[in-house]
Amino acid sequence: MNFTIKTAALQNITTSCMILGVYQNKALPEVTAEVNKLTHRALGNIIEAGDISGTLGQTLLIHNPEGVRAKRLLLVGLGKKGELDLKKFIKIINSVAQGLKKYALGDALDTLINLPVKNAGSEKCGQMIAQILQNSVYRYTQTKSKKGSKPELKKVDVYLVDKTQRSKLRKALDIGSAVASGMALTREMGNLPGNICTPTFLGEQAQLLAKRNKGLKTKVLSEAQMRRLGMGSLLSVGNGSDENSALIIMEYNGTSEKTKPNVIVGKGITFDTGGISLKPGAGMDEMKFDMCGAASVLGTMAALCALKPRINVIGVIASAENMPSGRATKPGDIVTSMSGQTIEVLNTDAEGRLVLCDALTYVERYKPKSVIDIATLTGAVIVALGSVVSGVMSNNDELADKLYQTGLDVNDPVWRLPIWDEYQSQLDSNFADIANIGGPKAGSITAACFLSRFAKKYPWAHLDIAGTAWLQGKEKGATGRPVPLLVEYLLNN
Ligand code: BES
Ligand code: MN
Ligand code: ZN
């Protein structure tokens, strides 16, 4: 999607649709008041008539307004004057996105950037406009024989009053747009079925990204290479599958300075049947989404490639298919991880932690500034937090706080759960150093406690995105979360 900044006089800007805010209680923001004058107070009349009351997110489309070169005006409710904050602003942009979609408009002029928003300047608002509007036109068509018509909205102009903000806004729009492109890749990978999106396929996608972007290097470790590294835990997950497991490593080098990299590690189970601890049949198709953590790593690396920031970031994907078979890992089997710790696999459905732990050991070689793993790890996190926030668990308060604040900033929130020592004993095993499950209580926390045993050498955070990575029901599909959070964190740290 194309975003352009406009600073010409309002009445001279041509557009299919000008987007204007309206407060509750008939108050008009400056830009809307100006347009009201240009249109001989048509807006005032419409509001006086009560056609739009200005409650948050309400929309109204007006055709052929006089006095401006806009074919339409899309009015959107802003809620009470003086109460607008970033969260409300994001709701408003989501309504605008729906409105533009409903009327199949090809271009629009957004004036909302000029609104006073309590905890955000025009930069952050611009970033959200680009991210949300561009993300709203994503559609999945790859495996449909009839692709339908392409989404209409291709061009968004942003009307800026304070011209001194121009270059800052330009950067913000570019970030928002790059994040949305990354989200689109993440959503596409997530939505592809397990028979197409295999570990090998994910490796090929990472290679393709490196081929298209000079700053990125990709290598894919084969099963034989992983065996030589001693990754007995990761390899045990793919034992029952005919698909080869893979460890995919993407190195983004944006600066020649020898700064320590931040590392992101994604769970890439391309289908999770549960293995011998087989899952129930109902809804099992959704376990094609069990590689959404991996997909978010791909999407984040793609966004970085577009933005070319001067930072160093390593993206790692631990990928396997979890299947039952005569060669599959069985409950009670003991495997040896790359760290040397032995693991009793009491439940083959707790496989995400088994692939991640070896990846966490592998990345020690980068002496990372921080490591964040991203995983659809537990059903328990959906019980605890639903689909609103992702769970974050960390061995470092500063890192956890940063992720919390960043999540709020970019509409991709996370909430921390404790991984206190008191929980660790739930992982005791009579036959190995550690068991891979911790019983029915606090399932998300014990999963993170398991990972923490392999993440002692660096500041580490674990994002459990089982509730936020995809939607169910009519809107079933991958969401692209937490790409906004990851990109923002990496750009600022
Ligand atoms: N991929 C699942 C977690 C999951 C379940 C995500 C449902 C989204 C929806 C994970 O591999 C898994 O099966 N976890 C088990 C762990 C248990 C066996 C300790 C779970 O959550 O039931
Ligand atoms: Mn599982
Ligand atoms: Zn899984």
Task: Assess the beta-strand content as a share of residues.
Answer: 15-25%
**How many distinct beta strands?**
19
Q: What's the main sheet like?
A: 8 strands, mixed
Quickly count the domains: 2
Rg (CA only): 24 Å
CATH level-four homologous superfamily name of the largest domain: Zn peptidases
The best one-word shape is elongated
CATH topology of the largest domain: Aminopeptidase
- Bound molecule kinds, no repeats: ligand BES, manganese (II) ion, zinc ion
Helix content: 25-40%
CATH class term of the largest domain: Alpha Beta
Q: Helical region count?
A: 14
The overall pLDDT, averaged over residues, is: 97
Pairing-aware structural class of the strands and helices?
Answer: alpha/beta
Cα separation of the termini:
27 Å
Outline of the structure:
The chain is 34% helix and 20% strand.
Please supply descriptive tags for the structure shown above.
binds ligand BES; 19 strands; about 500 residues; 8-stranded mixed β-sheet; Leucine Aminopeptidase, subunit E, domain 1; single chain; 14 helices; alpha/beta; 6-stranded mixed β-sheet; binds zinc ion; binds manganese (II) ion; Aminopeptidase
Task: Report on this structure.
The chain is built from 14 helices and 19 strands. The model has no long low-confidence stretch (mean pLDDT 97). The protein starts with a strand and ends with a helix. The chain has 2 domains: 2-160, Leucine Aminopeptidase, subunit E, domain 1 (3-Layer(aba) Sandwich); 180-492, Aminopeptidase. The chain is 34% helix and 20% strand. The protein has helices at residues 30-38, 42-48, 86-102, 122-135, 166-191, 199-212, 223-229, 232-237, 292-307, 352-362, 380-385, 397-409, 443-452, 483-492, and strands at residues 2-6, 18-22, 59-63, 72-77, 107-110, 155-159, 216-221, 246-253, 262-272, 312-322, 333-336, 342-345, 370-375, 390-394, 414-416, 434-435, 460-464, 470-471, 477-478. With 493 residues, the chain is α/β, with parallel strands linked by helices. It has an 8-stranded mixed β-sheet with strand order 7-8-10-9-13-17-14-15, sandwiched between helices. A 6-stranded mixed β-sheet has the order 1-6-5-2-4-3, covered by helices on one side. The structure holds ligand BES, manganese (II) ion and zinc ion. Zinc ion (ZN) binds next to strand 9.
